[in-house]
Amino acid sequence: xxxxxxxxxxxxxxxxxxxxxxxxxxxxxxxxxxxxxxxxxxxxxxxxxxxxxxxxxxxxxxxxxxxxxxxxxxxxxxxxxxxxxxxxxxxxxxxxxxxxxxxxxxxxxxxxxxxxxxxxxxxxxxxxxxxxxxxxxxxxxxxxxxxxxxxxxxxxxxxxxxxxxxxxxxxxxxxxxxxxxxxxxxxxxxxxxxxxxxxxxxxxxxxxxxxxxxxxxxxxxxxxxxxxxxxxxxxxxxxxxxxxxxxxxxxxxxxxxxxxxxxxxxxxxxxxxxxxxxxxxxxxxxxxxxxxxxxxxxxxxxxxxxxxxxxxxxxxxxxxxxxxxxxxxxxxxxxxxxxxxxxxxxxxxxxxxxxxxxxxxxxxxxxxxxxxxxxxxxxxxxxxxxxxxxxxxxxxxxxxxxxxxxxxxxxxxxxxxxxxxxxxxxxxxxxxxxxxxxxxxxxx
Length: 444
What we know:
This protein has helices spanning 3-23, 36-47, 57-60, 63-78, 80-90, 97-107, 115-162, 181-196, 198-212, 223-247, 259-271, 288-300, 313-327, 342-369, 375-386, 401-416, 418-426; strands spanning 334-335, 338-339. By secondary structure, it is mainly α. The chain has one domain (3-426). Helix 5 (80-90) crosses helix 6 (97-107).
Protein backbone atom coordinates (compact mmCIF):
# COMPACT_ATOMS: atom_id res chain seq x y z
CA UNK A 1 0.00 0.00 0.00
CA UNK A 2 1.95 2.98 -1.32
CA UNK A 3 1.20 6.60 -0.46
CA UNK A 4 -0.33 7.26 -3.89
CA UNK A 5 -2.61 4.24 -3.50
CA UNK A 6 -3.66 5.48 -0.06
CA UNK A 7 -4.69 8.84 -1.53
CA UNK A 8 -6.56 7.31 -4.50
CA UNK A 9 -8.38 4.73 -2.36
CA UNK A 10 -9.15 7.44 0.21
CA UNK A 11 -11.03 9.47 -2.39
CA UNK A 12 -12.88 6.33 -3.51
CA UNK A 13 -13.86 5.62 0.10
CA UNK A 14 -15.27 9.13 0.57
CA UNK A 15 -17.17 8.87 -2.73
CA UNK A 16 -18.65 5.53 -1.60
CA UNK A 17 -19.77 6.92 1.76
CA UNK A 18 -21.25 9.96 0.01
CA UNK A 19 -23.12 7.74 -2.43
CA UNK A 20 -24.67 5.74 0.41
CA UNK A 21 -25.74 8.89 2.26
CA UNK A 22 -27.25 10.48 -0.86
CA UNK A 23 -29.22 7.30 -1.59
CA UNK A 24 -31.06 7.48 1.74
CA UNK A 25 -34.73 8.56 1.68
CA UNK A 26 -34.07 11.52 3.98
CA UNK A 27 -31.58 12.90 1.44
CA UNK A 28 -34.21 13.42 -1.26
CA UNK A 29 -37.00 15.99 -1.22
CA UNK A 30 -39.73 13.43 -1.93
CA UNK A 31 -38.55 11.06 0.83
CA UNK A 32 -37.92 8.07 -1.48
CA UNK A 33 -34.76 6.04 -2.06
CA UNK A 34 -32.45 7.80 -4.49
CA UNK A 35 -31.33 6.34 -7.81
CA UNK A 36 -27.88 4.73 -7.55
CA UNK A 37 -26.45 6.48 -10.63
CA UNK A 38 -27.75 9.87 -9.49
CA UNK A 39 -26.28 9.38 -6.01
CA UNK A 40 -22.94 8.09 -7.36
CA UNK A 41 -22.66 10.88 -9.94
CA UNK A 42 -23.53 13.59 -7.40
CA UNK A 43 -21.16 12.19 -4.76
CA UNK A 44 -18.29 11.91 -7.25
CA UNK A 45 -18.97 15.41 -8.56
CA UNK A 46 -18.95 16.82 -5.01
CA UNK A 47 -15.84 14.99 -3.77
CA UNK A 48 -14.01 15.83 -7.00
CA UNK A 49 -15.21 19.47 -6.56
CA UNK A 50 -16.67 19.47 -10.06
CA UNK A 51 -20.28 20.63 -9.82
CA UNK A 52 -21.74 18.68 -12.74
CA UNK A 53 -25.16 17.37 -11.81
CA UNK A 54 -27.75 15.15 -13.48
CA UNK A 55 -30.52 16.67 -11.32
CA UNK A 56 -31.33 20.07 -9.85
CA UNK A 57 -29.76 19.97 -6.34
CA UNK A 58 -32.01 22.76 -5.08
CA UNK A 59 -35.24 20.84 -5.67
CA UNK A 60 -34.20 17.17 -5.93
CA UNK A 61 -32.37 16.93 -2.61
CA UNK A 62 -33.68 17.74 0.87
CA UNK A 63 -31.79 19.91 3.34
CA UNK A 64 -29.84 16.82 4.47
CA UNK A 65 -28.95 15.91 0.93
CA UNK A 66 -27.75 19.45 0.26
CA UNK A 67 -25.76 19.37 3.52
CA UNK A 68 -24.07 16.11 2.45
CA UNK A 69 -23.14 17.70 -0.88
CA UNK A 70 -21.60 20.71 0.90
CA UNK A 71 -19.64 18.47 3.29
CA UNK A 72 -18.40 16.25 0.46
CA UNK A 73 -17.30 19.35 -1.47
CA UNK A 74 -15.48 20.61 1.63
CA UNK A 75 -13.66 17.30 2.06
CA UNK A 76 -12.88 17.15 -1.65
CA UNK A 77 -11.59 20.72 -1.71
CA UNK A 78 -9.33 20.23 1.29
CA UNK A 79 -8.21 16.85 -0.01
CA UNK A 80 -8.46 13.41 1.55
CA UNK A 81 -5.07 13.55 3.30
CA UNK A 82 -5.60 17.08 4.66
CA UNK A 83 -8.99 16.13 6.11
CA UNK A 84 -7.69 12.86 7.58
CA UNK A 85 -4.66 14.55 9.13
CA UNK A 86 -6.83 17.29 10.62
CA UNK A 87 -9.06 14.68 12.26
CA UNK A 88 -5.95 12.95 13.66
CA UNK A 89 -4.79 16.26 15.12
CA UNK A 90 -8.23 16.89 16.62
CA UNK A 91 -8.11 13.69 18.66
CA UNK A 92 -4.60 14.54 19.85
CA UNK A 93 -2.66 11.83 18.02
CA UNK A 94 0.71 12.33 16.35
CA UNK A 95 1.20 11.15 12.78
CA UNK A 96 4.18 9.16 11.58
CA UNK A 97 6.66 9.56 8.73
CA UNK A 98 4.37 7.79 6.27
CA UNK A 99 1.60 10.33 6.86
CA UNK A 100 4.07 13.20 6.51
CA UNK A 101 5.15 11.82 3.12
CA UNK A 102 1.48 11.51 2.11
CA UNK A 103 0.84 15.15 3.07
CA UNK A 104 3.91 16.22 1.12
CA UNK A 105 2.69 14.46 -2.03
CA UNK A 106 -0.96 15.48 -1.61
CA UNK A 107 -0.09 19.16 -1.15
CA UNK A 108 2.86 19.06 -3.57
CA UNK A 109 5.18 20.55 -0.91
CA UNK A 110 9.00 20.60 -1.23
CA UNK A 111 9.61 19.24 2.30
CA UNK A 112 7.95 17.38 5.17
CA UNK A 113 8.77 19.71 8.06
CA UNK A 114 5.97 21.58 9.82
CA UNK A 115 3.22 19.39 8.37
CA UNK A 116 0.88 19.79 11.36
CA UNK A 117 1.24 23.58 11.32
CA UNK A 118 0.51 23.62 7.59
CA UNK A 119 -2.68 21.59 8.06
CA UNK A 120 -3.88 23.89 10.86
CA UNK A 121 -3.14 26.96 8.73
CA UNK A 122 -5.01 25.52 5.74
CA UNK A 123 -8.10 24.80 7.87
CA UNK A 124 -7.95 28.25 9.48
CA UNK A 125 -7.56 29.99 6.12
CA UNK A 126 -10.47 28.02 4.69
CA UNK A 127 -12.77 28.92 7.59
CA UNK A 128 -11.81 32.61 7.52
CA UNK A 129 -12.59 33.05 3.82
CA UNK A 130 -15.71 30.89 3.84
CA UNK A 131 -17.18 32.75 6.84
CA UNK A 132 -16.35 36.08 5.18
CA UNK A 133 -18.12 34.87 2.04
CA UNK A 134 -21.17 33.86 4.07
CA UNK A 135 -21.41 37.30 5.71
CA UNK A 136 -21.20 39.09 2.36
CA UNK A 137 -23.71 36.81 0.63
CA UNK A 138 -26.16 37.27 3.51
CA UNK A 139 -26.56 40.90 2.45
CA UNK A 140 -27.83 39.75 -0.96
CA UNK A 141 -29.81 36.62 -0.05
CA UNK A 142 -31.60 37.57 3.20
CA UNK A 143 -33.74 40.37 1.64
CA UNK A 144 -34.87 37.93 -1.08
CA UNK A 145 -35.34 34.71 0.93
CA UNK A 146 -35.47 35.63 4.62
CA UNK A 147 -33.00 34.76 7.37
CA UNK A 148 -33.38 30.98 7.51
CA UNK A 149 -33.18 30.17 3.81
CA UNK A 150 -30.89 33.12 3.10
CA UNK A 151 -28.36 31.87 5.68
CA UNK A 152 -28.34 28.36 4.22
CA UNK A 153 -27.96 29.71 0.66
CA UNK A 154 -25.04 31.87 1.79
CA UNK A 155 -23.31 28.96 3.57
CA UNK A 156 -23.85 26.49 0.71
CA UNK A 157 -22.62 28.81 -2.04
CA UNK A 158 -19.69 30.16 -0.03
CA UNK A 159 -18.43 26.61 0.61
CA UNK A 160 -18.89 25.65 -3.03
CA UNK A 161 -17.23 28.83 -4.30
CA UNK A 162 -14.13 28.51 -2.08
CA UNK A 163 -13.75 24.82 -2.95
CA UNK A 164 -14.37 25.52 -6.64
CA UNK A 165 -17.17 22.93 -6.57
CA UNK A 166 -19.83 24.83 -8.51
CA UNK A 167 -23.00 23.28 -7.07
CA UNK A 168 -25.83 25.80 -6.83
CA UNK A 169 -29.22 25.62 -5.17
CA UNK A 170 -30.58 28.05 -7.78
CA UNK A 171 -32.02 26.34 -10.85
CA UNK A 172 -30.22 28.78 -13.17
CA UNK A 173 -27.06 29.07 -11.03
CA UNK A 174 -26.34 32.83 -10.66
CA UNK A 175 -28.11 34.08 -13.78
CA UNK A 176 -30.66 35.78 -11.51
CA UNK A 177 -27.81 37.73 -9.85
CA UNK A 178 -25.82 38.51 -13.00
CA UNK A 179 -26.18 42.27 -12.38
CA UNK A 180 -25.44 42.11 -8.63
CA UNK A 181 -21.93 43.46 -8.08
CA UNK A 182 -21.88 42.15 -4.49
CA UNK A 183 -22.71 38.55 -5.44
CA UNK A 184 -20.43 38.53 -8.50
CA UNK A 185 -17.54 40.06 -6.53
CA UNK A 186 -17.92 37.71 -3.55
CA UNK A 187 -18.22 34.51 -5.59
CA UNK A 188 -15.38 35.34 -7.99
CA UNK A 189 -12.96 36.37 -5.23
CA UNK A 190 -13.67 33.12 -3.36
CA UNK A 191 -13.12 31.16 -6.58
CA UNK A 192 -9.81 32.88 -7.35
CA UNK A 193 -8.41 32.63 -3.82
CA UNK A 194 -9.57 29.05 -3.38
CA UNK A 195 -7.99 28.02 -6.66
CA UNK A 196 -4.74 29.95 -6.43
CA UNK A 197 -3.36 27.83 -3.60
CA UNK A 198 -2.71 28.12 0.11
CA UNK A 199 1.02 28.82 -0.34
CA UNK A 200 0.32 31.90 -2.46
CA UNK A 201 -2.16 33.25 0.10
CA UNK A 202 0.34 32.67 2.92
CA UNK A 203 3.15 34.47 1.09
CA UNK A 204 0.85 37.41 0.32
CA UNK A 205 -0.13 37.58 4.00
CA UNK A 206 3.50 37.50 5.17
CA UNK A 207 4.46 40.20 2.66
CA UNK A 208 1.58 42.44 3.78
CA UNK A 209 2.44 41.83 7.45
CA UNK A 210 6.08 42.77 6.89
CA UNK A 211 5.05 45.94 5.07
CA UNK A 212 2.67 47.00 7.82
CA UNK A 213 5.27 46.29 10.51
CA UNK A 214 7.88 48.08 8.36
CA UNK A 215 10.43 45.28 8.66
CA UNK A 216 13.75 45.82 6.95
CA UNK A 217 13.82 42.27 5.55
CA UNK A 218 10.51 41.94 3.76
CA UNK A 219 9.04 38.67 2.49
CA UNK A 220 10.72 37.43 -0.71
CA UNK A 221 8.22 35.88 -3.08
CA UNK A 222 8.89 32.33 -4.26
CA UNK A 223 8.85 31.22 -7.89
CA UNK A 224 5.54 29.44 -7.23
CA UNK A 225 3.97 32.73 -6.10
CA UNK A 226 5.26 34.68 -9.11
CA UNK A 227 4.18 32.10 -11.65
CA UNK A 228 0.74 31.41 -10.10
CA UNK A 229 -0.24 35.07 -9.65
CA UNK A 230 1.11 36.38 -12.96
CA UNK A 231 -0.40 33.53 -14.99
CA UNK A 232 -3.75 33.91 -13.22
CA UNK A 233 -3.86 37.66 -13.92
CA UNK A 234 -2.88 37.16 -17.58
CA UNK A 235 -5.54 34.49 -18.12
CA UNK A 236 -8.22 36.61 -16.43
CA UNK A 237 -7.43 39.61 -18.64
CA UNK A 238 -7.35 37.46 -21.79
CA UNK A 239 -10.67 35.86 -20.80
CA UNK A 240 -12.41 39.19 -20.19
CA UNK A 241 -11.28 40.64 -23.52
CA UNK A 242 -12.09 37.44 -25.44
CA UNK A 243 -15.61 37.04 -24.04
CA UNK A 244 -16.43 40.72 -24.54
CA UNK A 245 -15.33 40.58 -28.17
CA UNK A 246 -16.89 37.20 -28.99
CA UNK A 247 -20.22 37.42 -27.13
CA UNK A 248 -20.75 41.18 -27.52
CA UNK A 249 -23.34 40.80 -30.29
CA UNK A 250 -24.92 37.54 -29.08
CA UNK A 251 -28.45 38.48 -27.92
CA UNK A 252 -28.74 35.22 -25.94
CA UNK A 253 -25.80 36.10 -23.66
CA UNK A 254 -24.27 39.62 -23.70
CA UNK A 255 -26.05 41.44 -26.53
CA UNK A 256 -29.18 42.65 -24.73
CA UNK A 257 -27.38 44.14 -21.69
CA UNK A 258 -25.66 47.47 -21.01
CA UNK A 259 -21.87 47.73 -20.94
CA UNK A 260 -21.62 47.58 -17.12
CA UNK A 261 -23.50 44.28 -17.01
CA UNK A 262 -21.54 42.98 -19.99
CA UNK A 263 -18.31 43.72 -18.14
CA UNK A 264 -19.61 41.87 -15.05
CA UNK A 265 -20.58 38.90 -17.22
CA UNK A 266 -17.20 38.85 -18.97
CA UNK A 267 -15.40 39.02 -15.61
CA UNK A 268 -17.49 36.20 -14.13
CA UNK A 269 -17.19 34.07 -17.27
CA UNK A 270 -13.42 34.58 -17.26
CA UNK A 271 -13.15 33.46 -13.61
CA UNK A 272 -15.60 30.54 -13.47
CA UNK A 273 -13.91 28.26 -16.08
CA UNK A 274 -10.92 28.18 -13.72
CA UNK A 275 -12.67 25.08 -12.26
CA UNK A 276 -15.56 26.79 -10.42
CA UNK A 277 -18.68 25.77 -12.38
CA UNK A 278 -21.05 28.63 -11.57
CA UNK A 279 -22.50 30.64 -14.45
CA UNK A 280 -24.30 33.95 -14.96
CA UNK A 281 -25.27 33.22 -18.59
CA UNK A 282 -26.81 30.21 -20.35
CA UNK A 283 -23.69 28.27 -21.41
CA UNK A 284 -25.66 26.34 -24.04
CA UNK A 285 -26.47 29.58 -25.88
CA UNK A 286 -22.87 30.77 -26.21
CA UNK A 287 -21.26 30.95 -29.63
CA UNK A 288 -18.97 28.13 -30.75
CA UNK A 289 -15.98 30.44 -30.40
CA UNK A 290 -17.05 31.32 -26.87
CA UNK A 291 -17.36 27.64 -25.98
CA UNK A 292 -13.85 26.93 -27.29
CA UNK A 293 -12.39 29.79 -25.25
CA UNK A 294 -14.15 28.36 -22.19
CA UNK A 295 -12.78 24.87 -22.97
CA UNK A 296 -9.24 26.25 -23.17
CA UNK A 297 -9.58 28.07 -19.82
CA UNK A 298 -11.12 24.99 -18.21
CA UNK A 299 -8.31 22.74 -19.44
CA UNK A 300 -5.67 25.06 -17.95
CA UNK A 301 -7.50 25.27 -14.64
CA UNK A 302 -6.27 26.65 -11.32
CA UNK A 303 -2.90 26.58 -9.52
CA UNK A 304 -1.16 23.78 -7.57
CA UNK A 305 -2.16 23.56 -3.92
CA UNK A 306 -5.56 25.08 -4.62
CA UNK A 307 -9.01 23.52 -4.75
CA UNK A 308 -9.24 23.60 -8.54
CA UNK A 309 -8.31 21.13 -11.27
CA UNK A 310 -6.96 21.28 -14.81
CA UNK A 311 -3.34 20.93 -15.88
CA UNK A 312 -2.58 23.94 -13.61
CA UNK A 313 -1.08 27.36 -14.33
CA UNK A 314 2.48 26.31 -13.45
CA UNK A 315 2.37 23.47 -15.98
CA UNK A 316 1.27 25.94 -18.66
CA UNK A 317 4.10 28.35 -17.83
CA UNK A 318 6.75 25.62 -17.82
CA UNK A 319 5.60 24.37 -21.23
CA UNK A 320 5.39 27.86 -22.75
CA UNK A 321 8.83 28.69 -21.32
CA UNK A 322 10.18 25.52 -22.96
CA UNK A 323 8.78 26.71 -26.28
CA UNK A 324 10.28 30.15 -25.76
CA UNK A 325 13.71 28.67 -24.97
CA UNK A 326 13.62 26.55 -28.13
CA UNK A 327 12.69 29.55 -30.30
CA UNK A 328 15.52 31.58 -28.74
CA UNK A 329 18.01 28.76 -29.25
CA UNK A 330 18.64 28.27 -25.53
CA UNK A 331 19.49 24.95 -23.90
CA UNK A 332 17.91 25.70 -20.54
CA UNK A 333 14.44 26.82 -19.45
CA UNK A 334 14.26 30.01 -17.38
CA UNK A 335 11.44 31.56 -15.37
CA UNK A 336 12.01 34.83 -13.52
CA UNK A 337 15.78 34.35 -13.69
CA UNK A 338 15.53 30.84 -12.27
CA UNK A 339 16.48 27.64 -14.09
CA UNK A 340 13.75 24.99 -14.26
CA UNK A 341 14.96 21.49 -13.38
CA UNK A 342 14.65 18.79 -16.05
CA UNK A 343 12.46 16.60 -13.80
CA UNK A 344 9.88 19.40 -13.55
CA UNK A 345 9.87 19.79 -17.33
CA UNK A 346 9.33 16.04 -17.75
CA UNK A 347 6.53 16.15 -15.17
CA UNK A 348 4.83 19.02 -17.02
CA UNK A 349 5.04 17.11 -20.30
CA UNK A 350 3.66 14.00 -18.60
CA UNK A 351 0.72 15.95 -17.13
CA UNK A 352 -0.10 17.45 -20.55
CA UNK A 353 0.12 14.15 -22.44
CA UNK A 354 -1.86 12.25 -19.81
CA UNK A 355 -4.53 14.96 -19.66
CA UNK A 356 -4.94 15.18 -23.43
CA UNK A 357 -5.12 11.38 -23.67
CA UNK A 358 -7.82 11.24 -20.96
CA UNK A 359 -9.92 13.92 -22.68
CA UNK A 360 -9.57 12.26 -26.11
CA UNK A 361 -10.48 8.77 -24.85
CA UNK A 362 -13.48 10.02 -22.83
CA UNK A 363 -14.72 12.12 -25.77
CA UNK A 364 -14.48 9.16 -28.17
CA UNK A 365 -16.30 6.83 -25.77
CA UNK A 366 -19.19 9.26 -25.16
CA UNK A 367 -19.41 9.96 -28.91
CA UNK A 368 -19.89 6.21 -29.39
CA UNK A 369 -22.49 5.83 -26.62
CA UNK A 370 -24.42 9.03 -27.49
CA UNK A 371 -23.92 9.61 -31.25
CA UNK A 372 -26.77 12.16 -31.46
CA UNK A 373 -24.87 14.74 -29.38
CA UNK A 374 -22.83 17.48 -31.07
CA UNK A 375 -19.05 17.13 -30.86
CA UNK A 376 -18.61 20.52 -29.19
CA UNK A 377 -21.13 19.55 -26.48
CA UNK A 378 -19.33 16.27 -25.78
CA UNK A 379 -15.89 17.89 -25.70
CA UNK A 380 -17.15 20.68 -23.44
CA UNK A 381 -18.70 18.18 -21.01
CA UNK A 382 -15.59 15.97 -20.92
CA UNK A 383 -13.15 18.85 -20.35
CA UNK A 384 -15.47 20.26 -17.69
CA UNK A 385 -15.47 16.87 -15.94
CA UNK A 386 -11.72 16.29 -16.24
CA UNK A 387 -10.78 19.80 -15.12
CA UNK A 388 -13.34 19.51 -12.26
CA UNK A 389 -15.16 22.63 -13.45
CA UNK A 390 -18.85 21.81 -13.57
CA UNK A 391 -19.96 24.04 -16.43
CA UNK A 392 -22.31 22.37 -18.91
CA UNK A 393 -24.17 23.15 -22.10
CA UNK A 394 -27.17 21.40 -20.55
CA UNK A 395 -26.68 17.77 -21.63
CA UNK A 396 -25.51 16.24 -18.32
CA UNK A 397 -28.88 14.92 -17.24
CA UNK A 398 -29.87 13.62 -20.70
CA UNK A 399 -26.79 11.52 -21.57
CA UNK A 400 -26.95 7.74 -21.33
CA UNK A 401 -26.06 5.80 -18.19
CA UNK A 402 -22.84 4.60 -19.82
CA UNK A 403 -21.87 8.21 -20.60
CA UNK A 404 -22.58 9.18 -16.99
CA UNK A 405 -20.23 6.41 -15.79
CA UNK A 406 -17.55 7.67 -18.21
CA UNK A 407 -17.95 11.19 -16.83
CA UNK A 408 -17.70 9.81 -13.27
CA UNK A 409 -14.38 8.13 -14.13
CA UNK A 410 -13.17 11.30 -15.86
CA UNK A 411 -14.00 13.46 -12.81
CA UNK A 412 -12.13 11.04 -10.54
CA UNK A 413 -9.03 11.00 -12.76
CA UNK A 414 -9.07 14.79 -12.97
CA UNK A 415 -9.29 15.17 -9.18
CA UNK A 416 -6.58 12.74 -8.08
CA UNK A 417 -4.34 13.64 -11.00
CA UNK A 418 -3.20 11.61 -14.01
CA UNK A 419 0.38 11.05 -12.80
CA UNK A 420 -0.66 10.20 -9.23
CA UNK A 421 -3.25 7.70 -10.48
CA UNK A 422 -0.74 6.03 -12.80
CA UNK A 423 1.77 5.88 -9.94
CA UNK A 424 -0.88 4.22 -7.77
CA UNK A 425 -1.59 1.63 -10.48
CA UNK A 426 2.00 0.90 -11.49
CA UNK A 427 3.60 1.31 -8.05
CA UNK A 428 6.57 3.43 -7.01
CA UNK A 429 9.24 3.77 -9.75
CA UNK A 430 12.45 1.85 -9.26
CA UNK A 431 15.71 3.70 -9.96
CA UNK A 432 17.97 2.16 -12.61
CA UNK A 433 21.74 2.24 -12.83
CA UNK A 434 21.69 1.51 -16.55
CA UNK A 435 22.52 4.49 -18.80
CA UNK A 436 21.99 4.30 -22.55
CA UNK A 437 23.85 6.21 -25.28
CA UNK A 438 22.32 9.36 -26.77
CA UNK A 439 21.20 9.63 -30.40
CA UNK A 440 19.59 12.46 -32.37
CA UNK A 441 15.97 12.24 -33.49
CA UNK A 442 14.10 14.39 -36.00
CA UNK A 443 11.33 16.26 -34.14
CA UNK A 444 8.78 18.77 -35.42
